[in-house]
Amino acid sequence: MKLRNWILATTFLAAACGTASAQDWNAQPAYGSMRLEAGFAGDPRSVDIQAGGAIPARNLDQQCAGFITHQPSFSLDYEAGAFSLYFAAGSDADGSMVVRAPDGSFHCNDDATGHGLNPGVAISDPMSGEYDVWVGSLGYGDGYTPGELHISEIGFDTSNRFSRSADAELQPDHGRLNLRAGFDDDPRTMGIQVGGDVDGARSTQNQCWGSISQQPDVWIDYDANDVFDLYVSMQSEDDTTLIIAGPDGGWHCDDDTAGELNPGVRIRDPQSGRYAVWGGVFGGGGGVDATLYVSELGFLGDTSGPPLLEWNGTPNYGGVSLDAGFAPDPHNISLYAGGDQDVFEAIGENCRGYTTSQPDFNLDYDAAMLDLYLSASSEGDITMVVRAPDGSWHCDDDSAGDLNPGLHFDEPQSGMYNIWVGTYSEREPIPATLHVSELAFGDEYGMDETLDFSLEANYGSVELEAGFLPDPHRLDLLAGGSVEASSGANRSCRGFVSAAPDYELQYTAAELDLFISAYADGHDPTLVVNTPSGEWVCNDDAIGLNPGIAFEDPESGVYDIWVGTYLEDDSFDAELQISEMGFDQTRD
Known about the structure:
Layout (H helix, E strand, L loop, with lengths): L2 H16 L14 E5 L7 E7 L3 E2 L10 E2 L5 E6 L5 E7 L3 E6 L5 E4 L10 E4 L5 E9 L7 E8 L23 E5 L7 E9 L1 E2 H4 L7 E2 L5 E6 L6 E6 L4 E6 L5 E4 L9 E4 L5 E9 L3 E11 L23 E5 L7 E7 L3 E2 H5 L6 E2 L5 E6 L5 E6 L4 E6 L5 E4 L9 E4 L5 E9 L6 E8 L23 E5 L7 E7 L3 E2 H4 L7 E2 L5 E6 L5 E6 L5 E6 L5 E4 L8 E4 L5 E9 L6 E8 L9
Parallel strand pairs: 1-5, 12-16, 23-27, 34-38
Antiparallel strand pairs: 2-11, 3-4, 5-10, 6-9, 6-11, 7-8, 7-10, 13-22, 14-15, 16-21, 17-20, 17-22, 18-19, 18-21, 24-33, 25-26, 27-32, 28-31, 28-33, 29-30, 29-32, 35-44, 36-37, 38-43, 39-42, 39-44, 40-41, 40-43
């Protein structure tokens, strides 16, 4: 969004909000008042309210979020004692709360109760006097939602007897399936009608999309083993979604993974227990005919194991949470582009390239008025695939210039962006850098040109204490990168690595020496280590063509480790070893 448009939008919102009068804590509260003394019986005291409003809560205090009414929702005359005081609200809205204390101070909250999107304010040392409480909604124009305000001296209570959220405990509309791992007649199918008047996003804290019924459509009672994954998919002539509550209370959801407009959820390593399944309608409404498929082989009864981009898989290079206005901008991630998954076969559309099944990186983004730019740069021809928070897929090849992909999200959503960086025609991985920016496509900033131990390690981290077992600790990885080791470590270092460390070791030392080495049959790897004291240590050929570094009297702290290639534009599989016994040339 251009700055001029942002100013116009802000001006319009301010003008629209300005038509309502300012908040008045002296006005008659909308839902009544009561008087309580510390230690009151019947804790919590609950009041029926309507959450929402049209006046910005920041009119009362700049730190307050959401929209509230002119008059308070409720007023409490409280005689304080030795107890804390808790105000909390339960509703199906993404709620907000403002409390005006007797001294005129304001206390605000959005989601601090630990119960989804419900707000709460805790006052640890309350004073006696009048507390005016507004229960609002986080978004402008959300309307009013029935709910309950709870006042307690024990803790937050966000129950809501008016809730219309999805409830996995309600009896399903279309019955249940009782299945044991390895079941016959795979897939099991069931004709159902899906959709309803419940917002799936609100029911699942903005994780899932589609209009659903309050009660599940189907229960799947599944006795799992450690062999099969569980596939649930649905076919319909309409644009449908799937929402599943697992036995652990976690949500699984999808829009189009099973092809065309058909949703599919693959649950890896499923737990035994009950899976509550809702079929949703993407554009709203209900009474849509669909066929539900439950399988251990694939989606929609396809036993060939369809190609998948598993957006809910573990990302290859981790993830990050960023709020609008983040710094530094761009946020850069070194990775390898490519894989053996044909993107076109997996999701069709205008998508091209080859990636891994699981995402390369996950961005959990809290949006505001700024645009979002996702791009990648490399010396090769690369592509990009992004699954947005609403389940929609976005693909690009060359929009960021040269052969670099870029996707621009105008008015981006808040939520999880699953990101794949692929190769256009080659299935072999090549070094690349992913750029996350609110300014422009990141290729303008160039690829990382130095080693940066502050970046998240490509292959994660480990904590080891002296005397650890098994010894050696082993890690398989891909050696190499586009950054000269001498540019960020010291001039004596040789080889080419990624900007980010490959592995991070948190080590608690004792009387033992520490040995770090890397091995690659038929190749020439190199090794770079940044020690807890900040010293750079490098090696090329301590063990034949394999590098190794021995630390006598090692320090406790963080060792950032890079495994590189001696030759530029080279990459190969390697094994990193961490040991206290010595270098190990006899590997499994």
